[in-house]
Write a structure and sequence with these properties.
The complex is a heterodimer of chains A (429) and B (160). By secondary structure, chain A is of the alpha+beta class. Helix content of chain A is 24%, strand content 24%. In chain A, the strands form 3 sheets. A 7-stranded antiparallel β-sheet of chain A has the order 1-10-9-4-3-2-5. A 7-stranded antiparallel β-sheet of chain A has the order 11-17-16-15-14-13-12, sandwiched between helices. In chain A, strand 14 and strand 15 form a beta hairpin. In chain B, strand 4 and strand 5 (97-110) form a beta hairpin. In chain B, strands 1, 2, 3, 4, 5, 6 and 7 form a 7-stranded mixed β-sheet that branches. In chain B, 38% of the residues are buried. Classes of the chains: A alpha+beta (429), B alpha+beta (160). Strand 11 (190-200) of chain A pairs parallel with strand 8 of chain B, so a sheet runs across the interface.
Chain lengths: 429, 160
């Protein structure tokens, strides 16, 4: 076993050496990025791939990525879901070229090796040669040349895959705290409503920090402040799984909207103004679906975000394309039993999220502002001490606890010790 | 079709693009009827029959809110657009509107300090329009931009 493989198998038990100052190397180091592919994406974790609702019928497939590794999933005739590396067992070409569709077999375009829905090799042209000339040796065995499989497990219709036979069962990986919220959002059959793709010039982990960061919510995204439509910033909480790798930001409706507005104004937050009103308030027409919960942003390590903002529901995939680029693939959904009014609300509220989202588009900009500034110097560190220096769940949203917990888990998984606090800039000593 | 109507529609399409390219967004909602449909939707969704758009407005007021958010709320790197339009393809009349299809390519040029003057091909797609005449003036009752460039670079804040 290579040393790196040995490290990847270390139980990611918390060392209690909390990382609250992240070396910017994390966002720019090519070697670290390559190591992530091995220790993280192909390591002892589960990667979200797609929603089961995207491949309901036998023969349905969808191509995606685990880290940078191209993979695809298919629904077989037994109703099972298969995840395979999208690479021919012959000479390595991409086998499944379309993003999604329905097929009986997958045929590699290079030499037409064909695979069934479970990734088993079922056809090889000129296997016995032509007129007894050429062809494969007599002991060539199709069964020894299947596509490379990943382990697949689903939870509530979300499909995950793992390269690592040693990864714990998916339900344990998610943990009871995260599963409870996934039970709430995926409480009945869903319907896929569409996709959006946003390509951002930043490291994927800058975005992972963003979705674990309730601090920026009302400060970067000024839509609600501008239009005086705050409803949910006052009461909230941050929960984590036992290892701190996953997180859930929850915000609840309060009765005291005026209090929030005053609190916000007292902080003299830039460009705050309560002078604009929506000319067409039907944009924000909403119907409560989850009790008092108005917003929830759940990050499942490493690359799934389950978002619920009012009546918008979506699963976001973070797909890295190199150390300084990633794609955000958003899959929007509603429920199969949505009535016409709810369908219209989800449609209008979709203005809030995605690449053109009133309270989302800034995230693409913020990630690029970070990436652009840190690319010159990997030695300086960030400062992540809002809400303390520990990694305990908190019942407020003025905290960076989930970011600390993420980096603590990440550095353990990667075999790094990033527990040293500041100084942020050694040259300032 | 009446050549005068064609000429007025030609003018509407060109004036619309000039308005956005010249950063006169405040005038943009006035190209639409009061009840209208403006939608930017990725071809990926349109082809699958899935409804989710990138931008959506079904009233002139909702388009005004887009402009207010752009000017007062949203944060982004300043940029300008340059539309390159194809000749319109007139598809006939339906429900009192003229149906027109035209292609667009939009170049985005950054004007922030970090990337001043950098241009990229930002979005390519097709406008599907329904144009009506109100008080003798051509207006969009419906303008649907079906976007080939499903992969949005960084963000989309200025209407297409």
């Amino acid at each position: 076993m290579k040393a790196a493989e040995g490290l990847a198998r270390l139980a990611p038990a918390p060392t209690h050496r909390v990382c609250s100052a992240v070396p910017y190397q994390a966002f720019i180091d090519q070697d670290l990025y390559a190591l992530e592919q091995e220790r993280l994406f192909r390591g002892p974790i589960w990667n979200y791939l797609a929603l089961e609702a995207e491949i309901p019928n036998a023969g349905d497939y969808r191509a995606t990525f685990v880290g940078e590794t191209p993979v695809f999933i298919s629904r077989d005739r037994d109703g099972g879901i298969n995840a395979m590396v999208n690479q021919c067992a012959h000479r390595g070409a991409i086998v499944c070229r379309e993003t999604r569709g329905n097929r009986k077999t997958f045929v590699c375009p290079y030499h037409q090796w064909s695979y069934d829905l479970k990734g088993k090799l079922v056809g090889v042209p000129f296997r016995k040669g032509i007129n007894g000339q050429g062809g494969y040796p007599a002991d060539f065995d199709l069964s020894g040349h299947s596509l490379r499989h990943l382990r697949v497990e689903s939870y509530n219709g979300l499909i995950f895959a793992s390269f690592d036979a040693a990864a714990e069962p998916l339900a344990d990986y998610l943990g009871p705290e995260m599963r409870a919220h996934m039970d709430l959002i995926f409480n009945r059959p869903i319907r896929v409503l569409g996709f959006s793709r946003q390509f951002i010039n930043g490291n994927w982990k800058v975005y992972a920090e963003n979705v674990k960061d309730p601090y920026h919510g009302s400060l970067l995204h000024l839509f609600h402040a501008t239009f005086g439509s705050y409803r949910s910033t006052q009461r909230g909480g941050m929960s984590l799984d036992r290892l701190g790798r996953h997180s859930l930001i929850s915000a609840y409706k309060t009765d005291d909207n005026a209090g929030e507005t005053v609190a916000f104004a007292q902080e003299k937050v830039g460009s705050y103004a309560d002078t604009y009103k929506l000319a067409d308030p039907s944009l924000l027409a909403a119907r409560p679906e989850f009790g008092a919960l108005t917003t929830s942003i759940q990050h499942i390590f490493p690359s799934l975000v389950i978002q619920q903002i009012s009546n918008t529901l979506a699963a976001r995939s973070i797909i890295p394309h190199g150390v300084d680029k990633f794609e955000l693939l958003v899959t929007y959904f509603g429920y199969a039993d949505d009535d016409a009014e709810m369908s219209t609300m989800r449609l209008k509220q979709s203005n809030l999220i995605g690449p053109a989202g009133y309270i989302a588009l800034e995230d693409g900009y913020a990630v690029e502002l970070v990436q652009r500034a840190v690319q010159y110097d990997g030695k300086t560190k960030s400062f992540v001490e809002l809400g303390g220096r520990d990694t305990k769940a908190q019942d407020n949203l003025v905290t960076e606890v989930a970011i600390r917990a993420f980096w603590t888990y990440y550095s353990n998984l990667m075999g790094l010790d990033w527990s040293a606090r500041g100084p942020q800039d050694p040259s300032r000593n | 079709m009446d050549l005068k109507i064609r000429a007025e529609i030609d003018d509407l399409l060109a004036t619309y693009a000039d308005c956005i390219d010249d950063d006169r967004l405040e005038e943009w909602p006035d190209f639409f009827t009061e009840r209208c449909l403006y939608k930017v939707i990725p071809l990926e969704n349109e082809a699958l029959g899935l409804p989710i758009p990138l931008m959506y407005g079904d009233s002139r007021a909702m388009l005004k809110d887009r402009v207010t958010a752009h000017r007062k709320a949203n944060l982004f790197a300043p940029h300008l657009y340059r539309h390159v339009l194809s000749r319109p393809h007139f598809l006939g009349e339906a429900d009192g509107a003229v149906k027109v299809r035209s292609n667009y390519a939009i170049f985005r040029t950054m004007t922030d300090s970090a990337e001043y003057g950098r241009t990229e091909l930002f979005s390519v797609g097709v406008y599907y329009d329904q144009i009506v005449f109100e008080d003798g003036r051509a207006m969009f009752r419906e303008r649907i931009a079906v976007v080939d460039t499903a992969r949005v670079q960084t963000l989309l804040v200025t209407p297409l």
